[in-house]
Specification:
Elements: H1 2-11, H2 20-48, E1 61-63, E2 69-71, E3 81-86, H3 98-114, E4 119-124, H4 128-138, E5 145-148, H5 152-157, E6 170-177, E7 180-186, H6 208-213
Parallel strand pairs: 3-4, 4-5
Antiparallel strand pairs: 1-2, 1-5, 3-6, 6-7
């Protein structure tokens, strides 16, 4: 690591007026940032090499934006990979979860890019019309919304907690394998796995609000939370 820092010190362009202390600390941090990027790449490669996951045997049903009932395999379109996000917006909720909303905003902005590679859908227990009404309120234009028919999907994949009650957000990736659909990856971090005093994260942490705040001196903070309305 020391050799890497020395090389970076020679390669990094100093900012005018920076002190020696800032220069040295920033160079040390740059070495850690590069090491972190290598770790992120290594984890992504390890994830990509997961062996075939379990086949999805249940016939989970969904209601699409046209009101038609479809199965999980129908959600892939022309892709062999499907990314689903189960948002906390059940019929018993007056408004959607603020954190789910915070994540879906940037996801909508990137949906056209993402769907060049994979299929992408947002699931909820509320009717699609209700989800679309909120999407229009937020100015979302590119996400595809479906309602889960019954609670089997939510229960099996962790979107509903039958013991504690309430909903959980769930990010899941499925892959087609011939005529089968297999689970490829699902967020698996629980509250029991979280660092003390911190919310459980999805591993990887895909919410851009945290990525940006992590760049700042105050970090994520503990005295605020995303809101649905800032008026």
């Amino acid at each position: 690591m020391e050799d890497d820092v020395q090389k970076l010190a020679a390669l990094r362009t100093p900012f005018p007026g920076e002190s020696d202390a800032y220069r040295d600390a920033r160079t040390d941090l740059l070495a850690q940032e590069i090491a972190l990027q290598r770790q992120i790449d290594a984890v992504a490669e390890q994830r990509s090499k997961l062996p075939p996951g379990p086949a999805v045997e249940k016939d989970y049903r969904f209601r699409d934006m046209n009101g038609d009932e479809v199965g999980l395999a129908d959600l892939f379109g022309g892709h062999d990979t499907l990314v689903t996000y189960f948002q906390m917006y059940g019929p018993e909720r007056e408004r959607p979860c603020p954190m789910c909303t915070n994540l879906l905003g940037p996801l909508d902005a990137n949906a056209l890019d993402i769907t060049q590679r994979v299929a992408l859908v947002v699931l909820a227990r509320s009717p699609v019309d209700r989800q679309l009404a909120f999407a229009r309120e937020r100015g979302w234009r590119h996400l595809r919304f479906l309602q889960t028919v019954g609670d089997a999907f939510a229960l099996d994949f962790g979107g509903l907690d039958p013991k504690k009650g309430g909903e959980n957000p769930v990010l899941t990736v499925f892959r087609k394998d011939g005529d089968k659909v297999r689970l490829f990856w699902k967020g698996a971090m629980t509250g029991e796995m979280a660092e003390e005093g911190k919310d459980p994260r999805g591993i990887p942490d895909v919410a851009s609000v945290w990525t940006v705040l992590d760049l700042t001196p105050g970090g994520r903070g503990t005295d605020w939370y995303p809101k649905l309305d800032y008026r």
